[in-house]
Amino acid sequence: MAQRLALQRLLSLPARGPLASHGRAFGTSAGRRSTFNVQDGSDFQDRVVNSPKPVVVDFHAQWCGPCKILGPRLEKLVAKQEGKVLMAKVDIDDHTDLAIEYEVSAVPTVLAMKNGDVVDKFVGVKDEDQLEAFLKKLIGA
Predict the structure, then answer these.
(1) What are the tens digits of pLDDT across the range 89-135?
(2) Is the pTM higher than 0.70?
(3) Residues near 135 by beta carbon (within 8 Å), at least 6 away in sequence
(4) Catalytic residue selected from 48, 64, 74, 98
(5) I want to staple 92 with a disulfide (CB 3.0 to 4.6 A). Which of 16, 99, 109, 119 is the partner?
(6) Is 80 a catalytic residue?
(7) Per the residue annotation, which of 55, 67, 79, 87 is the catalytic one?
């Protein structure tokens, strides 16, 4: 009986901790809407090549240390652009055909695409200032 009362009290308490912060652990942020994982070649064609907006394409791999540094940094800056640019994430192990087609020889490789064409590219990790300049050049701001 004492255990049941303790459990009822516990369940009636307001949620605390990292998962309780306004549902953020389960919600969708603005950054997530502008960033997506490419599912296959036709998805890439639809969402990247045929996109009316400029798209940053992040070719990465799960095993790549520098990719783990660059990816979140780039996602954050793309989210700050408030929908002016999208970000497509392409895992080269899952999509080797796309990596070959776009001549990706090292990861991370980031392409800037506009109207289906590659207009800029870099390989490796960049700092936030360099990434902001890359995005501004792509957006035309």
Answers:
(1) 999 999 999 999 999 999 999 999 999 999 999 999 999 999 999 99
(2) yes
(3) 56, 77, 78, 81, 85
(4) 64
(5) 99
(6) no
(7) 67
